[in-house]
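Good morning C.,

I know you're traveling, so I'll keep this short. The sequence:
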Amino acid sequence: MSDVIHIPAGERGKIRILSLDMPPEQAKFLSEPGALEQVLGSRDLDRDHVEIFPVKDLEELGLLGYLSEGCGIPDDSLAPHKFALDAQEGWVLILRSRAFGGQDTRLTPAEPIQLIAELAEPGTDWSGTQIQTESAKPHSAPKLPPREARARARRIGFTLFAIMMTLITFVILALVF
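The tokens, ready to paste straight into the viewer:
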């Protein structure tokens, strides 16, 4: 058996790349319900956050390009794993932290499954400065006079009425003819 992989409760923003050193038929079978859980020694996995694919499907993009451009992993995080990721030729398994539903999990992968890399997804940068323009201030749009607002509402209402009556007319004509 491989080493135990511990996923702490509440973990977020991690991606684990595992090598699947097995025949293609067996790797494809891991997509079946319960098969992946069995070989990982895990409970339920959220399959929306699990990917199983052959590296050759990535063509010239490659596994490094997929992780960099497709998953948004920064190049400096990929650099320590560059040779291991470039060397992958068979099937790989990508597990995101969300696949474990925030539960404390211990994976005991079967022998043909090896952890290649554990990477951190970049977090969202929520910092920013306050917008100082006049139009960003609350209630800064010019207020319509009440008569103009009522006239505008009537025009919108009449337009919607005309559209609905035209559609009803077309439906009746279509049913008749």
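Safe travels,
E.
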